[in-house]
Amino acid sequence: MSKYVSIRDIAVGAVLAEPILNRYGHLIIPSGTKIEEYHLAFLEKWGITKINVEDEAAPEIDPALLHIAKERVAERSDWKPSNPLEEDMINAAAKYVAQLLSPLKAVHESY
Amino acid sequence: MNLIDRIYDGIHSLPVLPTICYAPNDIVDNPKLTEKDAARIISTDQVLTAKIVRAANAICCDNNGQIDSITQAIERLGITDVKNLIAAFSIIDMFSKNKSLEYFSPIDFWSHSIGVGLMSRHIGKSMGIKNVENFFLAGILHDIGKLLFFEYARVEYSQALQLAQEKNMLIRNAEMEVLGIDHSFAGELLAEYWKLPRTFKHAIRYHHSGLVEDKYNIIVASVHIADIMTRLLSIGFPGDSGVPQPNKKVWAILKLPPAAFSSITPKFLENYRSTTALFLDH
């Protein structure tokens, strides 16, 4: 997955998902390049405002943490999912809760 | 004065919707207005223009690049949703002076409502609906009745909120117990006073069942599910911590692809952060 991002919002290290060509079709920066500070300055000079970069890979969620998160989400609802979409609602919420929980776990483990 | 009279009087002391909109009335009222006219009229108000452009970026947040002008905002959101944004800004602003109650604050309230608005829109898009206009404002407005209690029945509403918390009840049941009416009823009175289009009136009145008197309405159904999904994600606080079960009949209306929520949620969270920052920062 990739998305178009304004060069003002690009973080150094983002990976270019498609090559950048100038108006004559000449390659300026190839696809797959890690964007550095000087690329951004360069793009600005060329008047390029948006570039297509790869989405950062979502970090893997610890299954144990996901399990705890799912229990927390289920605790708040007194119903069991009755179809795949309800199941998906709970799973999607649990994934988000697990992400919220992970920094806590990291802190806990460092002690 | 009894409670319903107090709320009724309160509603009638509120400004009529078009006159409180920042923009000239004809943008909100005139159905024949062309996109070009609307862009020209809105552009005369620079603050409003900047807000709409920012809001359009926050809400759209897809791969089609940034929105830089009011014309682009109208192109991407549609003229109806640009008008709806003006209404949303006005309504949030109108109630921005509400003071917090012990168990509930207006920021919590609006955070939940904005979450439901964005989630409703995502649900609409996920069904492949090209024109998802009105989904966002329907979600923003669905709980508006709570603000009337907040404003005109503060003592009773504090009791209802406390009851919901202590007995782990849904706020709408606690409202019925303490106030004798719930927020969907109070909200409908406001919708009638403001002469809101039927879609919004129905989303306010029927979001708990997701069905309009047993009939299907895609926006009301989406708001019903969005409300529940937003509660599952603990986005904002609607007055209780419960998560009711979706109405089974609603799933028959919503033609959602498998794992729709897993794919919606990350995009939704991205939208949510930028949108609340825009609407709630004062």
Summarize the structure.
The complex is a heterodimer of chains A (111) and B (282). Chain A is α+β, with helices and mostly antiparallel strands and 111 residues long.
Keyword list:
heterodimer, A: 111 residues, alpha+beta, Molybdopterin biosynthesis moea protein, domain 2, 2 domains, two-stranded antiparallel ribbon, 3 helices, elongated, B: 282 residues, mainly alpha, Hypothetical protein af1432
Structural Rg of chain B:
18 Å
Secondary structure: helix percent of chain A: 40-55%
| Strand residue percentage of chain A | 5-15%
Segments of chain B where pLDDT lies below 50 for 5+ residues?
A: 19-25
CATH fold field value of the domain at 3-15 and 99-280 in chain B: Hypothetical protein af1432
Write up what this structure looks like:
The complex is a heterodimer of chains A (111) and B (282). Chain A is of the alpha+beta class and 111 residues long. Chain A folds into two domains: 2-54, Molybdopterin biosynthesis moea protein, domain 2, CATH 3.90.105; 63-109. Chain A has three helices and four strands, in the order E-E-E-H-E-H-H. In chain A, helix 2 packs across helix 3. The longest helix of chain A is centred in the last third of the chain and has 26 residues, at 84-109. With 282 residues, chain B is mainly α. Chain B has a domain at 3-15 and 99-280: Hypothetical protein af1432, CATH 1.10.3210. In chain B, helix 1 (3-13) packs across helix 10 (144-152), helix 8 runs antiparallel to helix 9 (135-141) and helix 11 (154-167) crosses helix 12 (171-179). The longest helix of chain B is centred in the middle third of the chain and has 21 residues, at 106-126. Chain B is globular and about 50 Å long. Residues 19-25 of chain B have low confidence and may be disordered.
